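[Q] Does anyone have a clean structure-token version of this?
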Amino acid sequence: MAWGEGDNVHRLFGDHGHSNCEQFTPDSGLLALVGAPRQKTGSSASFHTFVRIHRVVDGFELATLDDSNSPYPFDSPWFSPDGKIMVTSRQVWSENGGPPSNVLSWWNTATWRLSGTVTSPFNSLAWSPDSRTAAVVVFVAGDGYRLVLRNFDGSAAGDLGHVDVYPAQPLAFSSDGRRIAVGGGGDTLRGTRRGRIQLFEIR
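[A] Here you go.
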């Protein structure tokens, strides 16, 4: 891996293949390259996906993250505002022909170790301003979509109630951390197709 300079632009060179998504840490010190496939050793037909973390100043690779040998690529990284946690998503297709789900993985940026996972029907997440919790929409069998809070390690932190907009993305925390907005293209309860926003208060 080399970190070149030219025309005031840094360039990464190596066996990344291609990158589906990139994200800087809040302090701009690190860059996450997400969903770049490379061929598995000893395999001519399959690829594995990963996330590479590079130091911006010189391009040094700090870590390569992989939470499974799934053929589905990583996508959409989210850093917490304090930069201590990174969440990645991986879309997984149902084996019985149902809709896909997204496995959200919580990574500790001090160790780059996986600390927890959450499964969501939507590729969307919002961090609280204090970085203590993240809002995610989950599906509960027999109960529908619900907006829940997760701690820094992905463990449960609270349930804010039913979500009646679909698809339930994007999500946004208010700057004071007291409200969460969930956007969608319609109302799952009333069968309307007009866009709606649902507001939740954190008590």
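[Q] Thanks! Anything notable?
[A] The longest strand covers residues 85-92.
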